[in-house]
Amino acid sequence: MRRREFLTLVGSATATWPLKARAQRRSPRRIGVVSTIAENDREAKPRVTAFQQALEQLGWATGRNLHIDFRWTNRSAEEMTFLCRDIVALEPEVILVQSNPGVAALRQLTSTIPIVFVSVADPVESGFVDSLAHPGKNITGFSNFEASMGGKWLETLKQIAPGVNNVLALVHAETAAHAGFLRTAQSAAPSLGVILSTANVQRAADIEAALTALSAEANCGLLIMPHPVTTTNRKLILKMAAQYGFPAIYPFRYNVTEGGLISYGIDLVDLYRRAAAYIDRILLGAEPQELPVQAPSKFEMAINAKTAKALGLDVPLRLQQLADEVIE
User: Fold this and answer.
1) For 53-112, what is each residue's pLDDT tens digit?
2) What are the structural domains, with CATH classification, of the chain?
3) 3-state DSSP call for residue 66?
4) Is the bond preceding residue 296 a cis peptide, omega within 30 degrees?
5) Phi (first) and psi of residue 94, to 5 degrees
6) Each residue of 181-195: pLDDT tens digit?
7) Which of 156, 216, 229, 230 is the most buried (most CB within 10 A)?
């Protein structure tokens, strides 16, 4: 039997075993982690380190009473599904997963293994949980952005680049939360004097084609939606934004430290740190449906002054004062 077929068979069987039976089986305890970036991505280590340090503070140490299976991917949805199936087949007692595509893949594979997510947008609209207060299934975790953030991103972009009146949003059409972001951005657009359009991006080639086409227009800017496809292709986005002189707003600080103009969003490392508490409670017997989905508690704005200067932009003093970090 081929490995892929074997994992499918074992994963399907594991997904139906009772939760309590799994929770009593082994020592050290076993958890799985599925990340939607590559292991060698510079953002991977800070997140994992924060997560493991928080677990240690709660009494869980790898090599002593805990074993962690990691799976990393920055490629296709098909690979994400394969790696999730691989994790389920290992029979972990709980799985930590990042991103909407990661949760979507896992929920198709198991309805009993507890899943704790981080950085998931609009988990109710996405169908992952019944409500934030009462998840109601085997899934809970830590969300990232509410739908209203779409309007906030557009407003912030206009503040730093007032001459922009044609904004292209890079979206992933299959991600339900992006529809909410777009609704609030479209509502804000007329009052900001902005025409908002979208490009559905599934891979690097889509991003390259969309930004190349946009270069033929004048006074253009970019709104980058949070998704693995924009995260893993961020170097391409940064390169083309600089090449064509597009002011762009990003959802995460690391986009700005790597050369992006401005970001407004959550602290992903903080979410990984906080997720350790839910992993701990589930290992001690709590059920996911008992743990409400938590909203982010820490937002941050970062501005790259060097990039602003290269784009010919004067960053307003008020925006500088609001920023958590201005990179000179």
Assistant:
1) 999 999 999 989 999 999 997 666 778 888 899 999 999 999 999 988 899 999 999 999
2) 3-144+267-298 (3.40.50.2300), 149-266+300-327 (3.40.50.2300)
3) strand
4) no
5) -160, 150
6) 999 999 999 999 999
7) 229
Give the range among 6-20, 184-198, 297-311 with minimum mean pLDDT. 6-20
Distance of CA 36 to the CA centre of its chain: 8
φ/ψ of 39, rounded to 5, equals -60, -30
**How large a percentage of the chain has pLDDT more than 70?**
91
Sheet holding 195-200, edge to edge: 195-200, 166-171, 220-224, 248-250, 262-266, 299-304, 325-327
- Please state, in angstroms and as integers, the Cα–Cα distance from residue 311 to each residue in 56, 60, 315, following that order: 45, 48, 11
Is there a contact between 292 and 133 (Cβ–Cβ < 8 Å)?
yes
* C-beta separation of 253 from 245 below 8 A: no
